[in-house]
TrEMBL record:
Residues 289-308 have a biased composition (Acidic residues). One of its GO terms (biological process) is DNA recombination. It comes from the Bacteria. It comes from Nocardiopsis composta. GO terms for molecular function: DNA binding. This is Phage recombination protein Bet. It holds the Pfam family RecT. Residues 282-320 are annotated as: Disordered.
């Protein structure tokens, strides 16, 4: 089956038709649930095109369009991403994918190893090669740590790259190899590991892998009957936290100050509280107001204000 045939075989109101030129009404409603219904028309059409071309189902979370705050442009940008599993699926559907080589890592010595055991330092590079039917040699992808490591504003690696750096770099190398082998099917589709954008709001206040105690705390601190934070607000908070270089504790203090209660994660903010958080972050990012200029000196005339019967004044005049 071709990629197009796989897309057609889907059933239901959200099924993608390879001949459709815009999102249908049910699909648009589903996009709203994904938080991207307000994306520019051009971005939405590109997303539709990529979903049709790759055969990945965005409503099954195989393909994503991520909205993030871009501090340089002062606005939001949308990028299309797929997990490494999605890239493997696309490659296998071509009928020409014949597996890959084991991922290898090397240090500054340039020696390639099948496993990275040095926990004190990150590998310098990782490589992976993909076998494609009809090609004499495997197509290789090499990922350099310095080019792909994702860092915070201060330059330190983000939590995932700090704790699982070899694994993350290996996925980048595999993605590069898959894209080199299947450019027609994978061009323009990148994995999160290949992009430098991270949801700093989630990183600053928790996320996947939380403890049971944290999950219970979230459940009991969730307001009821109020509109919760929107994806747009989450994205803007993430961008502003990143720009300020704010850590977890500092971010939690801002949430508590703006909400008037302890908020363990941004996802538990109400929409109104999120607006208060955004306003507070914007205030902190604004340049300080200039100090008031000192008052100009006032010309004054020295006068003799000693009382007429002051004996000291009389003595001073007599001494002259």
């Amino acid at each position: 089956m071709t990629t197009t045939e796989i897309a057609v075989s889907s059933i239901g109101a959200l099924a993608l038709d390879p001949t459709q030129t815009e999102w249908t009404e049910p699909q648009t409603a589903a996009l709203a649930q994904l938080g991207i219904a307000d994306a520019p028309a051009g971005d939405q059409l590109v997303f539709l095109h990529q979903a049709q071309r790759t055969g990945l189902d965005p409503f099954a979370k195989q393909l994503y369009m991520i909205k993030r705050w871009d501090s340089q442009s002062g606005g939001y940008k949308y990028t299309i991403q797929a997990g490494i599993d999605g890239l493997r699926v696309i490659a296998e559907r071509t009928g020409r994918y014949e597996g890959r080589t084991p991922i290898q890592w090397c240090g500054e010595d340039g020696v390639w190893r099948n496993v990275w055991l040095d926990r004190s330092r990150a590998p310098v590079a990782a490589r992976c090669a993909v076998y494609k039917r009809g090609f004499r040699e495997p197509l290789e992808g090499v990922a350099h740590w310095a080019e792909f490591v994702q860092t915070r504003k201060g330059g330190d690696p983000t939590p995932m790259w700090a704790t699982k750096g070899a694994h993350m770099l290996g996925k980048v190398a595999e993605a590069l190899a898959l894209r080199a082998a299947f450019p027609q099917d994978l061009s323009g589709i990148y994995t999160p590991e290949e992009t430098a954008a991270e949801d700093d709001a989630a990183a600053a206040s928790g996320g996947p892998g939380q403890t049971i105690a944290e999950a219970v705390a979230e459940e009991y601190s969730r307001p009821s009957g109020e509109q919760m934070v929107t994806p747009e607000q989450l994205s803007e908070i993430a961008g502003r936290i990143r720009d300020l270089g704010m850590g977890k504790d500092a971010a939690l203090e801002v949430y508590a100050e703006a909400a008037g209660r302890q908020v363990p994660t941004t996802r538990l903010l109400t929409a109104a509280e999120a607006e208060a958080v955004i306003e507070e972050l914007a205030r902190r990012a604004a340049p300080p107001e200039p100090e008031e200029a000192p008052e100009e000196p006032v010309d004054a005339e020295i006068v003799d204000d000693a009382p007429a019967d002051d004996p000291w004044a009389e003595r001073a005049e007599a001494a002259q």
